[in-house]
Design a protein that fits this description.
Order of helices and strands: EHEEEHEHEEEEEH
Distance between the termini: 46 Å
CATH superfamily of the largest domain: 2,3-Dihydroxybiphenyl 1,2-Dioxygenase, domain 1
Number of helices: 4
Largest sheet: 6 strands, mixed
Number of strands: 10
Strand content: 25-35%
CATH class of the largest domain: Alpha Beta
Length: about 140
């Protein structure tokens, strides 16, 4: 079996969060979803479990951080700069906040940050495939 990652996130409004993640291109896996949480699939090995606050509290006694704080930023690789822009636009149109941090454009790599409705940071990015594969060097930064 391949190694997998399940990112668990507390959400205040499950329906709103599910609509947000579906707008980004995630699909719902109904076998692992109910009225207390939803399994949102990014790929065969990456899932985001959005959980109501009550469900989340069944996993930990630690407090849910306020939406004004960040404890992690989750990056998603995409196929093009246009795909990055489209994901950020879709997220902003479905309750998220676009460009909560400055846009990063290094020529060979391009990324933007998107805040979901509950304050979780997502960083869709594109990287030149030749650089990502090690077939081309990372360009020197221009001064």
């Amino acid at each position: 079996m391949s190694r997998m990652i399940f990112v668990n996130l507390p959400v205040a409004d499950l329906a709103r969060s599910r609509a947000f993640y579906e707008a980004l291109g995630f699909t719902n896996e109904p076998r692992f979803s109910d009225d207390s949480g939803a399994a949102m699939v990014w790929s065969d090995t990456i899932f985001v479990m959005i959980l109501t606050h009550d469900k989340w509290k069944g996993f930990t006694d630690r407090p849910i951080p306020p939406t004004t704080s960040s404890e992690v930023s989750l990056a998603l690789s995409l196929d093009s700069r246009a795909a990055v822009d489209a994901m950020v636009a879709a997220g902003a149109a479905h309750g998220g906040t676009a460009d909560i941090n400055p846009v990063q454009d290094h020529g060979f790599m391009y990324g933007r940050d998107l805040l979901d409705p509950d304050g979780h940071v997502w960083g869709p990015f594109w990287m030149d495939p030749a650089v990502a594969a090690g077939e081309a060097a990372v360009p020197e930064p221009s001064l």
